[in-house]
């Protein structure tokens, strides 16, 4: 369900509307155009990106329109009344091609292709970049954390540290990337996520003593009781008091669900806590850890043998710590039926022209071996070339292939099947399983091969004026 359903047409940058008015006034409003969305750099110095945010983006396009209040505002800031009359009747009716949400994607690949008239394809640029860049960044962070956490339960604790309303999309992206639950009730409601939570130190402090605080909490929440044990002294008071309450609950036919560690040496404290709980016959009580966790800290804790069952990750997850933003861009590739490109002195910023299809090639074991970007009309390609070093090539004739980009919207109507974040997560994890380990390691991951066809290479060179 989209978070925003009013004034969606204003969810854009001023210059998008300026260009749209210019197109309208110069008689170009019906000119067919095509744009590609892609990114150039891996986030987190990693080796892959989890494509996320597509379903929400498509749903929001259904509300991308301008009402009278919107147009009154736009007239106040200088837009032409005749153009605004056009906007009153505006509806997004373009076609969109994209991979399935949760797919593993790589730099320079046309992850999304938008085809329609020049105004509608231009106006949605900001919305597309805002949603896909952010959610893909967070989903990728979540996938990296899931990669090291394995079967451990992962909970999103990040809303309070998120950048404003970005925390709403961050919780969705966290689950699509591999997390199990979220503390964000708002996102749980809107996206059908499983919400969860424990207690804060203030609960313990609000009672005369820790044991009383624990007993009352257990009384009120006997089916989901997790006790925060580090308000005062974790091993001398917190864990012993939790054990007392756990044994009392056991006598009453209930079970203490877990204890939470939120400070200190989590490896040491979790080992000591596990030993104390087991000695008391509370082997079933889980240990939850939080406090400034990320993929590197969790990896270290697991390597140290920390007996932690659940990780609650906050700031590092929802802010995309270590990166801040995915550098996705939206570039014109077709205009009035002809291929187009942006030329740059830096070959890496010269775009790929024309309508393109993205294929994935698998080796004899079914593992992902390379991706190929080809012109839409190409049915068979045996060799792909490095996009910037064309003397490097890869023969892919021996590999099986699958088409990654599919039509997900036709004339403004969603054609892709709706999926829950949990379904997207399962799909994403299944795709990551086919990505060789050397591309998933944190230190110096191997670069995944992405190539272009000879016809696409020649077309780019011709349009850029570099062909010989």
How would you describe what is shown here?
There is one protein chain. With 468 residues, the protein is α/β, with parallel strands linked by helices. The chain has helices at 14-25, 54-61, 68-76, 81-88, 118-123, 125-149, 166-176, 185-191, 201-205, 210-220, 234-251, 266-279, 295-303, 315-318, 421-432, 454-464; strands at 32-38, 49-50, 95-98, 104-105, 112-117, 153-156, 181-182, 226-228, 258-261, 286-289, 310-313, 329-335, 338-339, 356-362, 368-375, 383-385, 393-395, 400-403, 406-410, 413-414, 450-452. It has two domains: 28-61 and 95-135 and 329-464, nicotinate phosphoribosyltransferase; 139-318, Aldolase class I (TIM Barrel), CATH 3.20.20.70. Helix content is 36%, strand content 18%. The strands form five sheets. A seven-stranded antiparallel beta sheet has the order 13-12-1-5-3-19-20. Strands 7-6-11-10-9-8 form a six-stranded parallel beta sheet. The protein has a four-stranded mixed beta sheet with strand order 18-14-15-21. Strand 6 (153-156), helix 7 (166-176) and strand 7 (181-182) form a beta-alpha-beta unit. Helix 3 (68-76) runs antiparallel to helix 4 (81-88). The longest helix has 25 residues, at 125-149.
Characteristic terms for this protein:
468 residues; alpha/beta; nicotinate phosphoribosyltransferase; TIM Barrel; 2 domains; seven-stranded antiparallel beta sheet; six-stranded parallel beta sheet; 36% helix; globular
């Amino acid at each position: 369900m989209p978070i925003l359903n009013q004034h969606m047409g204003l969810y854009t940058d001023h210059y998008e509307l300026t260009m749209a008015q210019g197109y309208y006034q110069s008689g170009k409003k019906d000119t067919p155009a095509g744009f590609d969305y892609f990114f150039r750099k891996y986030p987190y110095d990693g080796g892959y990106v989890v494509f996320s945010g597509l379903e929400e983006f498509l749903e929001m396009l259904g509300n991308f329109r301008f009402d009278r209040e919107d147009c009154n505002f736009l007239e106040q800031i200088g837009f032409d009344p005749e153009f605004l009359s056009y906007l009153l009747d505006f509806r997004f009716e373009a076609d969109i091609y994209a991979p399935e949400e949760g797919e593993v994607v790589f730099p320079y690949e046309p992850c999304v292709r938008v085809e329609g008239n020049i105004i509608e394809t231009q106006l949605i640029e900001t919305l597309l970049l805002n949603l896909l860049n952010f959610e893909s960044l967070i989903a990728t962070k979540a996938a990296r954390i899931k990669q090291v956490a394995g079967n451990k339960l992962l909970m999103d604790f990040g809303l309070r540290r998120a950048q404003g309303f970005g925390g709403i999309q961050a919780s969705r992206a966290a689950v699509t990337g591999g997390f199990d639950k979220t503390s964000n009730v708002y996102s749980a409601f809107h996206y059908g996520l499983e919400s969860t939570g424990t207690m804060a130190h203030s609960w313990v402090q609000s009672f005369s003593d820790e044991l009383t605080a624990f007993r009352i909490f257990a009384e009120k929440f006997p089916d989901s009781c997790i006790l925060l044990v580090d308000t005062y002294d974790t091993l001398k008071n917190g864990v012993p008091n939790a054990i007392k309450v756990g044994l009392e609950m056991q006598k009453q036919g209930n079970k203490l669900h877990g204890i939470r560690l939120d400070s200190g040496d989590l490896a040491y404290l979790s080992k000591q806590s596990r030993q104390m709980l087991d000695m008391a016959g509370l082997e079933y009580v889980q240990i939850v850890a939080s406090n400034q966790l990320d993929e590197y800290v969790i990896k270290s804790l697991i390597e140290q043998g920390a007996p932690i069952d659940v990780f609650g990750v906050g700031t590092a997850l929802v802010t995309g710590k270590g990166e801040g933003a995915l550098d996705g861009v939206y570039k014109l590739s077709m205009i009035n039926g002809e291929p187009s490109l942006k030329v740059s002195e830096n070959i890496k910023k010269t775009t790929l022209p024309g309508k393109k299809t993205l294929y994935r090639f698998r080796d004899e074991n079914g593992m992902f071996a390379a991706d190929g970007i080809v012109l839409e009309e190409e049915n068979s390609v045996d060799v792909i070339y490095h996009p910037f070093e064309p003397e490097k090539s890869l023969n892919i004739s021996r590999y099986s292939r699958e088409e990654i980009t599919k039509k997900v919207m036709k004339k403004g109507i969603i054609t892709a099947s709706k999926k829950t974040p949990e379904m997207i997560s399962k799909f994403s994890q299944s795709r990551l399983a086919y990505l060789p380990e050397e591309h998933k390691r944190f230190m110096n991951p191997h670069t995944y091969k992405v190539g272009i066809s000879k016809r696409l290479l020649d077309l780019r060179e011709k349009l850029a004026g570099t062909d010989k």
